[in-house]
Amino acid sequence: MLKTSGIHHITAMVNDAQRTIDFYTGILGMRLVKKTINFDRPEVYHLYFGNKTGDPGTVITFFPWSKQLKGRIGTGQVGVTSYAIPKGAISFWQERLAKFNFDYQTSIRFQEQYIQLEDPDGLIIELVERETGALSDSKISGISSDVAIKGFAGAILNSVQPNETADTLENILGLESVGQDEEYLRFLASGNVKQTIDIKLTASVRGLMGAGTVHHIAWRAKDDQEHQAWSDLLTQKRFHPTEIKDRNYFHSIYFHEKGGILFEIATDQPGFTVDEELEHLGEQLKLPSWLEEKRTELEEQLPDVEVRILEEDK
């Protein structure tokens, strides 16, 4: 049976590119590993944040577009994105969020303590201590590797049909059913990081796509051969996947699971160093070859952005 080793990346919608960079690099200490464009709407950035090398399982990506309407988090979406921090790091992050005037709440789920907050566009994110996963270097002042975000701890899915989504996670993607904790079902990915995917069982409003919502969640395929096997399986099971798309840094197929959430399966290779050296990831605007002739036009349309140290850390 095919099994994904976990989350490859998660992609979300936001309004402001610079504000997003300031939050995810300046406050959370993640690295901007790629600055490119939305291949379907090249007048919009596609920004990737992750660990130092942009490893699969660490990367959150964004389509920042000032004109899009505010979305609504609800069914048919990833409701919460969870990040893993090292054991003993919760107090550091509580102090850091307070320093930057971000409100947060704490909660317990499956006997783990979570810090939950909203990013500047209203995306709900969580921090949770996990032993699994390699430590991550952060270049942001005051964030050392013993407290830095390591990558994804998992996600909460808001499904129209929770039992159908559970069936897809377990019997299509190969995640392990862990059990139930009040209003959540939990599934465990097979990779070394041991990401957890929770399905919320209680009803909520219907999700509306827009700024402050997750567009899709992507699962890992180790190579092109396995990726083709996933495409064949999904076709056989009548999930109607898209054709394989070349995203420069990985190959992708997309499908909606029966709970209404858009899933992607993406290859681990070739990765983000295919067009930039590791030391310079995210520094230049990278375009696919078919858009290079429009570089000047696109650079004039896209807003100027930069990775910068925020005043609170100076």
TrEMBL record:
Which residues belong to any copy of the VOC domain?
Answer: 6-130, 151-268
Report the InterPro entries cross-referenced here. Extradiol_RC_dioxygenase, Glyas_Bleomycin-R_OHBP_Dase, Glyas_Fos-R_dOase_dom, VOC_core
Q: Transmembrane segments in this chain: where?
A: none
Top-level lineage group: Bacteria
By what name is this protein known? Glyoxalase family protein
Q: Which organism is it from?
A: Gracilibacillus orientalis
